[in-house]
Amino acid sequence: MGSDLENLGVAAGINLGLATIFIAAYSVAIKMPINTRVYFPALLQRDPSKFKETGKTGLERFMLNLRLLDWLHGALKMPEEELIATAGLDAVVVLRVFFFSMKMLFPMALWGAIVLIPINKTDNNVQQQHAVNPKSSFSAVDQLSLSNVQDRSDRMWAHLLSAYMFAFWAYYCLWKEYEYITRLRLGYMADLQPQPDQFTVLTTEIPKVDAQSSETMSQRVARYFRVQYPDIYFAHNVVINANPLWALVNKRDKTANKVDALRIKMERKPRKGRPMHRTGFLGLRGPKVDSIDFYEKELSQLREEAATESGIIQSSQKRVVNAAFVTFRNRWGAAVAAQTQVSKNPQLWITSWAPEPRDVYWPNLGMSKWHQGLRRLAVGTAVFFLVFFYMVPISLVQSLANLDSLRHIGTPVKEIVDVPVIAGFVSGFLPGLVLKLFLALLPLLLRTMSTFEGHPSTSTIVRQAAIKVYYFQLVNVFFGSILTGSLFEQLRSFVSQPTKLPETLGNAIPTKSSFFITYIMVDGWAGFPAELLRLFPLLLYHLRVALFVVTDKDRENAMNLQRLHYEELLPSLLFYILLGLVYAPIAPLLLPFLLLFLVIGYVVYKNQIINVYERQYESSAGLWPFVANRVIVALLVAQITLLGVLSLKLASKVAPFAVPLPVLTLVYSVWLRDRFEPNFSRYPLESANEKDVIDSVKYPSWDLRDISDAAYTHPALAKGLTLDAAIPSVEELKEQQLVPVKAKYRRASNPASAASTPRTSRAPSPTRNGAHVTTEDELDPGDKV
Amino acid sequence: MGSDLENLGVAAGINLGLATIFIAAYSVAIKMPINTRVYFPALLQRDPSKFKETGKTGLERFMLNLRLLDWLHGALKMPEEELIATAGLDAVVVLRVFFFSMKMLFPMALWGAIVLIPINKTDNNVQQQHAVNPKSSFSAVDQLSLSNVQDRSDRMWAHLLSAYMFAFWAYYCLWKEYEYITRLRLGYMADLQPQPDQFTVLTTEIPKVDAQSSETMSQRVARYFRVQYPDIYFAHNVVINANPLWALVNKRDKTANKVDALRIKMERKPRKGRPMHRTGFLGLRGPKVDSIDFYEKELSQLREEAATESGIIQSSQKRVVNAAFVTFRNRWGAAVAAQTQVSKNPQLWITSWAPEPRDVYWPNLGMSKWHQGLRRLAVGTAVFFLVFFYMVPISLVQSLANLDSLRHIGTPVKEIVDVPVIAGFVSGFLPGLVLKLFLALLPLLLRTMSTFEGHPSTSTIVRQAAIKVYYFQLVNVFFGSILTGSLFEQLRSFVSQPTKLPETLGNAIPTKSSFFITYIMVDGWAGFPAELLRLFPLLLYHLRVALFVVTDKDRENAMNLQRLHYEELLPSLLFYILLGLVYAPIAPLLLPFLLLFLVIGYVVYKNQIINVYERQYESSAGLWPFVANRVIVALLVAQITLLGVLSLKLASKVAPFAVPLPVLTLVYSVWLRDRFEPNFSRYPLESANEKDVIDSVKYPSWDLRDISDAAYTHPALAKGLTLDAAIPSVEELKEQQLVPVKAKYRRASNPASAASTPRTSRAPSPTRNGAHVTTEDELDPGDKV
Lengths: 785, 785
Hints:
The structure is a homodimer. Chain A is about 65% helix and about 5% strand. Chain A has a 5-stranded antiparallel β-sheet with strand order 6-1-5-2-7. Chain A has a two-stranded antiparallel ribbon with strand order 3-4. The first copy, chain A, starts with a helix and ends in a 10-residue tail after the last strand. At the A-B interface, helix 14, helix 30 and helix 31 of A face helix 14, helix 30 and helix 32 of B. Chains A, B: Belongs to the CSC1 (TC 1.A.17) family. Chains A, B: GO terms for molecular function: calcium-activated cation channel activity.
């Protein structure tokens, strides 16, 4: 009796214990200066001075900050505006999603505890079922759920009423949150400094230049846009396929670093003599060579190749692709150009709002629509099969979760499993962990697939990956956990008999609440503090520092600065929102567990966003519509499930009244999209105008020409072209004020940092020499490239 | 043996006979001058001189033009460009649809006759079935169809191959036609004279003016657009709800006409004394009054009311609705404004390309999106029920079509029915006719519903009605004819088991080919010539002339000038295209009948378009995307049907190869829409620019101010406001050169004719006095309205 409650208790104990251990360990570990690069990489990057000022030794500082949970206080007290300013709006939206879910689910949990659980508990369906069929498991958790209400009972009116209340509350929350985030987004964009993407449009599918025509791509773009957008066209950057150059430049830098490292090693331990290595397989075979000579030779060869490649880029049309960034005189012009169809053939000269320079995914630019279409079809098919045939690991988890099946393995296993703590561990921790590990591999795969689809910006790639991950989780974790038999079989039966869906859901969902409660505990209660501790990056960092780090660059690489993986976090979060909404009217016991999960997650991620993750690009809350649309999906699934449960419980009076709910949700979603979504894909002219006017007052001396030069240039060109002029040394560059030494590598991987400090990167800019930037004022018909 | 072939022959004979009679009657009737207003109303309206020049008597002219079929020659010889110039592009698109279907179906028919029919005929499945079960009807028509091929036969490879060939041929035809019509559309719009709609955008959902604010709607619009579209904003017309005034004015005109008629009657027959009538129910009860006095009193009262109403319009904000027509300095500006989101709230200040002035459906302007949404939901639900429960008449037709059921009525009926000619008539003519009659009522109803949905232009209303009619026909005529049981039951079974659809179709379709052949013969072979003869309008006109016509206006009204009812013709045509595509691989015998139908239809409608239909508005081929999308639907239905037939015939080797066909069609349709559809909803900036430049050369003295005044004014205002100035007589108006007398009524129903002759309607324009037109140059903050 109550064995499942006991198991739940054990699982809760284990997970809370783990959480405490992780948090304690983290609280200690962050005090050690040696871990600064693991726990504060983002802060270190933003404000290095913070970590240098104190002259105290590590131990002194450690003793000084003995208040172990001050990090918690620090994280929680930071207001939203400051967070937006430091970490960007994209990161803040993630926290808003945590906050939104808490706000939406807390009243539901309260209502469930006060009204629904008493109603369920005072009936006795579970007991009766057990009495009729003693073999069926008797579950104390089920006693608190709708399962305990007898068939045909009028008590189900309460659940129906709750479902309506929950739905309207969810509509309200979603509406308010969408409104709030839209305001944040518009406000954020209005407050931004003048930036190139505000003035720029990406145009693709530029018709190919005839072989006979003497017109270059650049001339063609200038001519077309000057005619079609008279007065507002300003300049353009033709996109150049610098990907081969990019590869060469990267290889060159790695080799240069290797040479540096070898030299430093030799200086430190001169008696070891010049380092040698073998050139063959893994350095184990082949002739022995002098390493420094060898790599220097390789380096000079790479430099030559890069010079040749950059020569091709400069002197011919070979590397010009049919895409261009077109800059307009004002934001209004760019907003107009991004939203209008310019060509008579709508498949040519397609314009879209340009992503931020650092958000541009260069390798995908210039891919034709046809090509993209084919790739998307291929990826779509692949994802379909992945989603529906990735169930092998999931079913493995299912069999692990089942204590009975473990007991059947043999006597020793049975004895071990029968120890209550281990039973709790097996049913409460192991399945979730295994499932989690399998799922951890997935986002990388799906991100690669999304990249392959040919989207022009990283933020779009991440969004597409997030959508794929979400559907994967929905099908595999949610449906995979609650349905029996192969997923593909299930799909077939749903396609041929879609009306059976509510029944199937209604049959399976109520019995699975304890499984999902343990899943929540493992993933959130213990998982989020583990994310805080960053055990794996911590070990990796120290291992690297101990073994490989020689040059400064090595140390920087070892830090392994990472962005927040939205495509992993958001789908998981959305999956939990789905669980919450589905179980709110059916088994409200799940909600308190979920709420604790959300609280822990909120704190952990707020801390990590401040200290750990690098902000690689900013899409200004561009992921929010994805979240909102998935919440709608969750509502639909929840409402269809309730309909199924009610029908199965033969509530013939109540069930028909549940039918309008999903319809209502669909109507609501149409309104919601119509009201808010356009602002996440377009720049309203009103906003563009306002910013044009205000910024002309706020930044009176600011000139568009300052940024339009280098902003939209392939990062390889900024690096590669410096090679032409007799390979200037870093000192020379420093004198030219071209690149601050520290920023050299960052700039290369991040062209926008150049744009945000336009004045330093101007004067003798190498990209200017490359002549692929053409402002209208300068262009003349003889212009090359 | 072959009884169904005989029946088909009889039906063909009857219908061809009828066709001959109709055509002969028409050929004679059009020679009679008395019928001019029935057979040449459009021509009469365009070019009245054509019908007056000859001094000959009616008989002389009749004898002169004894070549009876010269109308046919006249219709056929008119080239497309001339037709576009006289009848407009919308009408020409209808002819293109006839032409396109012929082009698409003719090679299919040929291939069917040469390849498929021999393959079918040389098998013997039908005979065997008959031998096994003698009760089953033996059909000679089925012997020519796929039904005659034995189960599992390898002959079905031929049908599969044909389906692929047909699909690719259909793709090609559709692509070429879409391209051609897009070219026509862009060319047509490029050749148009300067017109107000080229410069104008309709903006709706203007935020309500506060009660405290002293700003009028007009000032608000001017302020907003001048800021958001600087440089290109030119002027605007606030929309005024003149619908009450409109009703009063119409009633006033009717009463005035009544008074005129009474006076003329009295003059003609003075001895009869002053006409009297009773005021009570139907003029049968109540006190007797002097009619002229009575109506004159009513007339003056109506004039007063109209004056009061127009006073309200002029002096207050009460009748101003939150919509406006905004005119821009050039076409480029209007194209930009129509395509961009201007407000931060995408549900406010919604802009869309303005319909032509004569296309504007005034009563719907100013309806809020919410209101429209609710209405569309209501209409959608109503249409759903209409579509699925309108089957009573259809099943009646079904039972009529069945000779056996008629025989069961009783001996006398049986004897009559067994006469071969009558049997042919019953099975070949009657069912189609009854079906047709029921269907004739429908477009009116669906048009009313579409009007109720709140679309701002007549062309959109017609398009929406056409979509509804199409789906009605698809479900009721197509599925209703081939499926057994109630349609709603069928729908339920399809929703719960969608994969059963191909099987059900495959089961029913092949056996219904003779039914549809007779349907085609009745509708096309006899129906189109009946359309030519216009028997009903002919009788109605002469009846009216004989009984009611007194004033000139009466005669004009009796003419009953009608537009081409696209919402009836196009769905029918598309239904036949569906039949053609479905039966092309299955029962190719149907195609020759269909082709003859198309030829007759093409000739008839070309003639009618030239002579009969009034062009009430021009949407520049705006209906074509609807047609193209429905052809795609037809292809899908055809391919799914074939899949079903092949599966039912156990062609386990062949059937799987039919699965990719619908997928291919879907992919193709995505491409097709993407490639062409945007040009039917947007004005590409390239085109707008070109026209701006060319027209500035072509019409150098043309000034935008000439048209922007009166173009977008509620038709009632042009009429109603003339009442203020002491009700000027027609002579006075003539002197003012305001309205040509003849054109007075036409202008009222057709505000665009005023716009297309801008110079005459300018100077002391009454609408200018109404001050609801505001150009930017004139507006000052104290401006009223």
